[in-house]
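Lab channel / #folding
Pinned by the channel admin:
"Please post every new chain as: sequence first, then the structure tokens as a reply. Keep commentary short and put observations after the output so the thread stays searchable."

First post following the new format, from NK:
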Amino acid sequence: MAMFFGRVVGRAISPFVPGGSPNDSILHLSQASVLASVKEGKRASLMAKFGSSDAEPVCLATLTAGRQDSVALDIFLDRYTEFSVLGDVEVHLSGYFAPPDTLPGGDEEDDSEDDEEYTGQGEGDSSSEDEEALQNGEGLQNLQALRRMIAGGDLEEGSSDEEGDSEEEEDEDEEDDSEDDEEEDEDEPKAPHCVIEEINEQQEEVVAPVGSKRAALEEKQEGPNKKQKALEAPQQPQQEQQQQQQKQQQK
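Reply from TO:
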């Protein structure tokens, strides 16, 4: 159960002794404030020396009447402390005494210590059991069996890994070959065959009329020669007959 703490601090030193607190509790300072009757604008600084009177003073809060009449504090004190005020204004301190178990982080520290003790005991027990097993000879046999099992498992894993790697490499090679074939098929030109056939057809079409023209010209040139030969053919026997008749008349 927490108990209230209150004190008025002025320019004179006001000591706090932990041994005088109830049930050896720790003091928690919650607030520092000035009275409303203080003239507006006056300032006061709450100072404290921790551990001894020879320690350097530390400013915990500075109050200004009419502007900042109170300041919230969150300070735990478990050692000798001297309070004092700089200024002509009195400062009122308020707080409560708290048992050490209720301090933040206290339970966590205890739990961590318990965990360390527990882990230390467990490790000691396991190590002692292992030593006894080794002395009896059982531990050596178990260790040898474990080593054999581990070695066999490593070999199987290594072989399976090698097989898997070889299969993956073969699949990758097949994929690469298929991709190369597809690229070659795509790169090979197919259109030129059709173009060549079309050009040949056009050439044949162009050549045909040239040949027909030449044949027509030859026929035209041979035509009159044939007619002349046909006309000359019947004239030759007539001339021969006339020559024979003339020879007979002369006789």
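NK: The chain has a mean pLDDT of 73.
TO: also worth noting, The domain at 3-102 is CATH 2.60.120.340 (Jelly Rolls).
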